[in-house]
Amino acid sequence: MARADRSLTRERGVREAYAAHAGELYGFAVRSLNDNGLAEEAVQETFLRAWRAGDRYDPELGSLRTWLFAILRNVVIDLGRARAGRPVPSDVEPPES
Description:
Layout: H1 3-6, H2 11-33, H3 36-52, H4 64-84
Helix pairs in contact: 2-3, 2-4, 3-4
């Protein structure tokens, strides 16, 4: 693996990846989750997972952007499932249809 690719396991590499891709990832997360706060959480979790798994990223299999979107897709699914499993408090009125 090239030196530049291993840098994702270092703070500088994550910062560079964040600067390059966070906006696009955030837009996807907002459209998927319909919640700005959850979208921010999803992007943060995506970069945390990417940092933890940075040594497994292989540029021969795909671009960094593609890899980050794959991670984000899984994060969005996880957050969506967690949100669906939460009970609605009884004092909250259901949204109007």
